[in-house]
């Protein structure tokens, strides 16, 4: 199948997934959802927005640390926001490529390969954080002993994952040795492409061999996810009288998995489905499609998208790039081109805009 055919297949699949999810959410009681939104306590929106912005700032600091502080905190924040904005409004999740293209445009430039490898590390750190959230949720839910044990096991597994990640960062060859050993049992693992992907991941993991870098990366990750949980908990007050931390933990974790599901831009449908199932699984509502759950999911998604759009547009302006230029650059990167964005037409130097070592 051609590249264009694969893209259209992804778009069609995304439309189908979003359509099914939205039908499930809204086939019961639209008037109830409307009433919940009309009666919501919107005073909770502002502190939630503040917490979301703080969380983005913490993630920007983490990315800057993983890049060896090659760019300023200001550039890291704006570029990260642009990537979330692009993922929210364009299909095929090209935000990561947009981030690499913008970083490569700075002076001095951050190599595209380096930027992409740090994004791989971010995904690994975030995956461990999500499993920790799920484990904590299961551990604090008022359920049977088996569920509590499962939560504790996920927590222990997360700790083991951190140890393994740090060990591989200190001894990258161990990963290739393990892959070669597994390939003796599983022949499909004898793939040059798989080894190339592993090299790509190891290039990003290597900075974690530095104790200071590792401590900061894990610290910013923990703080960023804690801020997300707090933001969700605060916004729950807009719809629910007595929100719970378990509900906020569960919805943040499940929403993170929903991002990987094919959908229309912004993950409309799967995101809301993840939220309502999280609220139902933690007992905040009796059924996933109850109006309060659906209304809250819509409110949370709308607020998040608005924050990403506003901050993304500000980021484009701050970096002196148009959305059209950015899309063109990401297309070239997707086509394995080494091309990067050119400086703005008005030739404003980075030093005049604050430089990279603020």
- Tally of individual domains: 1
Taking all Cα atoms into account, the compactness measure Rg is 21 Å
Separate helix tally: 14
Shape: globular
Give the SSE string: HHHHHHHHHHHHHH
Helical/strand content category: mainly alpha
Task: Give a brief outline of the structure.
The chain contains 14 helices and no strands. By secondary structure, the chain is mainly α.
What do these coordinates show?
- The protein is an all-alpha fold.
- It is 72% helix and 0% strand.
- Helix 6 packs antiparallel against helix 7.
- The protein has 14 helices and no strands.
Brief descriptors of the model:
globular, 72% helix, mainly alpha, disordered C terminus, 14 helices, 358 residues
SSE map:
Elements: H1 3-26, H2 30-38, H3 45-66, H4 73-89, H5 95-104, H6 112-140, H7 145-170, H8 173-185, H9 192-205, H10 211-236, H11 245-258, H12 270-281, H13 291-319, H14 323-334
Helix pairs in contact: 2-13, 3-4, 3-10, 4-5, 4-13, 5-6, 5-14, 6-7, 6-9, 6-10, 6-11, 10-11, 11-12, 12-13
């Amino acid at each position: 199948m051609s590249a264009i055919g694969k893209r259209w297949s992804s778009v069609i699949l995304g439309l189908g997934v979003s359509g099914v999810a939205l039908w499930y959410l809204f086939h019961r009681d639209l008037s109830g959802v409307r009433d919940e939104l009309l009666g919501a306590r919107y005073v909770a929106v502002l502190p939630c927005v503040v917490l979301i912005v703080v969380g983005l700032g913490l993630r920007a600091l983490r990315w800057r640390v993983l890049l060896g502080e090659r760019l300023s905190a200001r550039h890291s924040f704006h570029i990260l926001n642009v990537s979330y904005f692009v993922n929210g409004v364009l299909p095929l999740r090209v935000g990561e490529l947009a981030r690499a293209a913008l970083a490569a445009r700075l002076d001095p430039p951050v190599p595209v390969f380096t930027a992409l490898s740090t994004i791989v590390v971010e995904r690994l750190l975030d995956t461990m954080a999500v499993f920790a959230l799920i484990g904590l949720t299961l551990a604090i839910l008022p359920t049977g002993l088996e569920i509590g044990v499962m939560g504790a096991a996920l927590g222990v597994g997360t700790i083991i994952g951190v140890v393994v990640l740090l060990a591989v960062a200190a001894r990258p060859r161990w990963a290739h040795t393990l892959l070669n050993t597994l390939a003796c049992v599983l022949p499909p693992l004898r793939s040059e492409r798989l080894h190339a992907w592993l090299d790509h991941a190891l290039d990003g993991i290597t900075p974690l061999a530095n104790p200071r870098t590792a401590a900061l990366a894990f610290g910013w990750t923990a703080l960023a996810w804690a801020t997300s949980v707090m933001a969700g908990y605060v916004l729950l007050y807009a719809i629910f009288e007595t929100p719970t931390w378990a509900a906020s933990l569960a919805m943040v974790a499940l929403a993170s998995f929903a991002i990987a599901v094919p959908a229309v831009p912004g993950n409309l449908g799967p995101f809301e489905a993840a939220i309502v199932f999280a609220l139902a699984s933690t007992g905040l509502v009796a059924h996933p499609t109850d109006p309060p759950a659906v209304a809250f999911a819509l409110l949370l998604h709308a607020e998040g998208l608005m924050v990403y759009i506003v901050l993304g547009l500000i980021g484009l302006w701050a970096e002196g790039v148009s959305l059209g230029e950015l899309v063109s650059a990401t297309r070239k990167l997707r086509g394995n081109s080494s091309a990067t964005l050119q400086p703005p037409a008005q030739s404003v130097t980075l030093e005049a805009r604050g430089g990279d070592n603020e």
